[in-house]
Every structure is written in C-alpha cells, then in structure tokens.
Design goal:
Blueprint (H helix, E strand, L loop, with lengths): L2 H5 L3 H4 L9 H12 L10 E6 L2 E4 L2 E5 L12 H14 L14 H14 L3 E5 L2 H12 L5 E5 L4 H9 L3 E5 L4 H10 L6 E6 L1 E2 L4 E2 L2 H10 L3 E5 L14 H4 L8 E5 L9 E5 L7 H4 L1 H4 L6 H14 L3 H21 L12 E6 L2 H14 L1 E2 L1 E3 L9 E6 L6 H18 L3
Parallel strand pairs: 3-14, 5-6, 5-7, 7-10, 10-11
Antiparallel strand pairs: 1-2, 2-3, 4-12, 8-9, 11-12, 13-16, 15-16
Helix pairs in contact: 4-13, 5-13, 6-7, 8-9, 14-16, 15-16
The structure holds pyridoxal-5'-phosphate.
C-alpha cells in the first residue's frame, strides 16, 4: 500500500456533515402529507390570471380567495397604463441602490404619494415590506435599547429584531396589561420601541392600538405599527387601524407594503420624526440593495393615489367580509375571530391532514384559499385563510359559501 493511499480518509469520514439534516423532520412531515394522496398545497401554479379574483389553476377557472389583493388594484387600467409608460420611458430596472444610481423621479413621486396618503412629513420606499421592517427596526433600536413586541408578530419583525442589537421583550398577543407590565420592568432611562401590527394576518384580528399606544406613551416608548393588512381598507381614509382608532398622530413609524392593497411589490415607512431622513444613509436594507424598477414605483404611486378615493370599495369589502364571516359561522365552521374584524376570515381546521383535504376539496370546487400551518400560525393551528377582495361581487361571495358548504360536508369538517 502506498503512503498516499494509507493517508486517504475512509469513504465514510470524507462525507461532509449534511447541513440539510436539520430539515429531515419537515421533509418527512411533507412526504407523509403527500402520501395521503392530497395535492401539494404549497406548490399551486396559476397558469393564467384573469382578474383580481379569477385565475386558471390546473386548467380550471378558479375564484381567488387567498390573495392579499384586498382592493383589487392589480388590473386597474390606470395602474397598468402607468407601469407600461414607465417601462417605455425609464427601462426595466435601475440596477442600483437608492443612494447611488437607483433614485429616479418615479421613486420620489411614489414617496410623495405616500406622504399625501398618510398626511405625514416623511416617506421612505424599500424594495419589500420585509426589508422595511428589517431595516427600520434593526436601525432605530440599537445596543442598550429595548424592543417590546407582540408574540404573534410577523417574521419580518422578528428578523428585524434579530438583525439589530437591542434587547427583545415579547408580550402575550394583544394583551394590553402584559405590554404594560413588560414596559414597567425596563429601565426608565432606556430607549424603548414598541412594535405592533394593525391587523394580525393569520387570524385576521385587529390590535387594541388605542390602549396599547396609551400605555406605551406613558412608559415613554416610541411606537411602530405595521399596517400591512389594513392599508387601503381600514380607517376612513384607508390609513389603517391606527386611523380607525383615532391614534395615528401618536404613532412614530408606520410600516407598510405595496404587495397587498396597493397591488404590486415594495415596502415603506412613513413618519413625522424630524430626523427621519437620516435613515437613508444608515439603514442597511435600504442602502445595500437595488431599488424598485420604475414600472413598479409608477404602478404603486398611481394605485396609492387612487386608494385615497376608495371609500365605495372599502364599504363593499366590509360587506363581503361580514357576509362571508356570518355565512361560515352559520354553517358551523370555527373561525379565528367571533366578529369580522378585517378582510381576512380564518377558518380553523382540526389538524393539518384534514385541513389539506378541505383545501383540496375547495380547489376541486374551483376556489383557492391559503392553507396556513405552524410556524406561521399561532398556537400550532392549521388554518384555511380567506382574504376577501373589493372586486368580489356579492354573488361571488354566495358562490363561495356554497363551495365551503359542499367541501365541508364532503370532508366531514361540518
Ligand atoms: C404584517 C406583515 N408585515 C410585513 C410583510 C412583508 O411584506 P412584503 O410582502 O412586502 O415583503 C408581510 C407580508 O406578508 C406582513 O404580513
């Protein structure tokens, strides 16, 4: 045997530890679900999108009840025309950061539309809502500061906390007393940021922002509210839950997204803080990434300005939400909230297997909803999340209820 061969590691020893081994339990759970014969609920393909509420899925026309297209802006003719014009005049992308070559007049126009929409002094557009939370939270709360957040906060809020250096203090979901107690334990002189959401997207419940902001301000904390699921719909001007509860003027930072009611992609923060503009130099998820394409900011700005005059659509969306919530309750489904509180109606399933079976039965009927499961959902729940759109007609909501009744009976859920 040569010296070289003797020194060679055995075949077993030379295999690198598999970094994917940690995913084995999830791989097994997914396989077990597919082995029951259901379609993969997490790989649906929309072959063609016909409107904000209809698409072709598996070759069949399907009603969409699982998008975040709350105000139905994706096919608005003025929005589409603005996007096409910007593509022609400014090209397909900026290829650069906002602080270098990536600020076009369209980005400034979009920020102006946001300032007008919220009646606030400053607006900063990010490439996604995820990055807006990541950037703002990690930048403003630093070493020695405290972030107090609702335990059911969105992943982007948690990731913003993880990226920064502040101490993290979670409190029980929507519990004002728990928030007050946590704040009382933090040193009085420390910087404090309370992070809340207007609508919590899994169950569709809203936060008692008025009370929460009152205890936060009493503890001399700054307040950030993520209004991703309420912008455009909730509040007299669609500014969100803080507006609906009359406390928007006490919110230091509103975070939002263009990927829901606005109908495109992007994120933002609006604020009246006098030093806010410095964020453009210090916020890494703003600086170290390419800016949104001109067509995207053009569609966003047009959509935001149209949402300022969306009160009829808002009223119709409330009607849809109330009718779906009432109809499903009457049929015997268990819902995430006792009353309709937003455009999200969450139907609680007994377990993942029956949830997936019901999801597939609905798809077979011609209805798409979201199947949601842990870790996205609270308390280990499996949910069928329905998100209504202002473009769903009243007749469509009746059709949807009929589909739920048949699928619920076929799968034994009701
Ligand atoms: C509460 C909340 N915040 C932020 C985001 C991120 O938004 P975006 O899709 O623009 O990244 C979401 C998206 O689902 C969300 O639900």
């Amino acid at each position: 045997m040569s010296a070289r061969a003797a020194a060679a590691p055995s075949a077993e020893a030379s295999v690198a530890p598999d970094l994917f081994a940690k995913f084995d339990p999830l791989i097994a759970q997914r396989q077990a679900l597919l082995d029951t014969g259901v379609k993969d609920p997490f790989s649906l393909v929309m072959e063609k999108v016909l409107s904000p509420t209809r698409a072709i899925c598996n070759g069949k026309e399907t009603i969409l009840l699982g998008t975040y297209n709350y105000m139905g802006m994706t096919f608005d003719p003025e929005v589409i025309a603005a996007g096409k014009r910007a593509l022609d005049e400014f090209g397909s992308g900026t290829t650069g950061s906002r602080v270098l070559n990536g600020t076009y007049q369209g980005h400034k126009a979009c920020e102006a539309a946001l300032r007008d929409f919220y009646a606030m002094d400053h607006a900063m557009v990010f490439s996604t809502g995820y990055q807006a939370n990541l950037g703002v939270i990690s930048t403003i709360a630093g070493k020695g500061d405290y972030i107090v957040l609702d335990i059911d906060s969105h992943a982007s809020i948690y990731d913003g906390c993880a990226m920064g250096n502040a101490e993290i203090v979670p409190f029980r979901h929507n519990d004002v007393t728990a928030l007050e107690k946590r704040l009382a334990r933090i040193p009085a002189e420390a910087g404090k940021l309370v992070v809340l959401e207007g609508v919590y997207s899994m169950l569709g419940d809203i936060a008692p922002l008025k009370e929460m902001i009152a205890v936060s301000k009493a503890a001399r904390a700054m307040v950030l509210v993520d209004e991703a699921h309420s912008m455009g719909f909730i509040g007299p001007n669609g500014r969100g839950v803080a507006e609906a509860q009359g406390v928007l003027d006490q919110v230091d930072f509103v975070i939002g997204t263009f990927s829901k009611s606005v109908g495109t992609v992007g994120g933002f923060c609006v604020s009246n803080h006098p030093k806010f503009e410095i964020m453009r130099l210090v916020c890494r998820p703003y600086v170290f990434t390419a800016s949104l394409p001109p067509s995207v900011v053009a569609t966003a700005a047009t959509s935001i300005r149209k949402l300022m005059h969306g009160s009829n659509k808002r009223a119709h969306l409330w009607e849809n939400s109330k009718r779906l919530h009432g109809g499903l309750t009457q049929m015997g489904f268990t819902l995430g909230t006792a009353e309709p509180q937003s455009a999200i109606v969450a139907v609680i399933m007994p377990d993942l297997e029956r949830g997936a079976a019901m999801w597939e039965a609905l798809l077979h009927e011609g209805l798409y909803v979201n199947l949601a499961r842990p870790p996205a959902t609270p308390a280990g729940m499996t949910l069928l999340r329905c998100s209504l759109c202002a473009e769903h007609s009243s007749e469509e909501v009746e059709t949807i209820l009929g589909m739920f009744e048949r699928a619920g009976k076929a799968t034994g859920i009701i």
